[in-house]
Amino acid sequence: MTPSGTATGRRGRPGHSLDSLLDVAVAVFNERGYDATSMDELAARLGITKSAIYHHVPSKVELLRLALDRALDALFAVTRESAATTGPAIGRLEHVVRGSVRVLAAELPFVTLLLRVRGNSPVEEAALGRRREFDRIVTDLVRAAEDEGDVRPDVDPAITSRLLFGTVNSLTEWYRPGGSLSADALADALVTTTFSGLRARR
């Protein structure tokens, strides 16, 4: 997946693309925290000069913006897929949950960074605004499924949405891609355990 607003495979100095620079930057941001990471440290980790980094991006904050947009763009792509499908709202909700698990597995460092954002800068505030929009979409799906009689009506849709994605987001704490549990198997397990309590009893 290419970060929003970047060219696929764009290359500058030999041996480093914008994508590989972004991968390293996100790893360091997650290890040390964005504010505690300097461009000098990023350059040292990459084995290049700061000027080589500036060949790709004008600032550290641009690296943060690209990283957060990469996670958010992937999540919103899932909501667009869901909106393009027909059928009951609970099916579209399940699609969003499954798709979000797959995004988390594919973009784990980027999603981890997104979940640590606290709104300390305009870039972080913008990311939080997009997260709130994503939450609204999920809440609307829960409400629609409730109206259709497929989701139990005794829990507020906003709470149900938070509980669902609290579970999804918690996967960043322990899931490691490449292990014995595939992203699809993980999504199956999460949907099985959460939707059994979510569905209305008939």
Automatic annotation (TrEMBL):
InterPro entries: Homeodomain-like_sf, HTH-type_TetR-like_transc_reg, HTH_TetR, KstR2_TetR_C, Tet_transcr_reg_TetR-rel_C_sf. Residues 15-75 form the HTH tetR-type domain. The keyword Signal does not apply. Residues 38-57 bind DNA. Gene3D superfamilies: Homeodomain-like, Tetracycline Repressor, domain 2. Keywords: DNA-binding, Transcription, Transcription regulation. This is TetR/AcrR family transcriptional regulator. It comes from Geodermatophilus maliterrae.
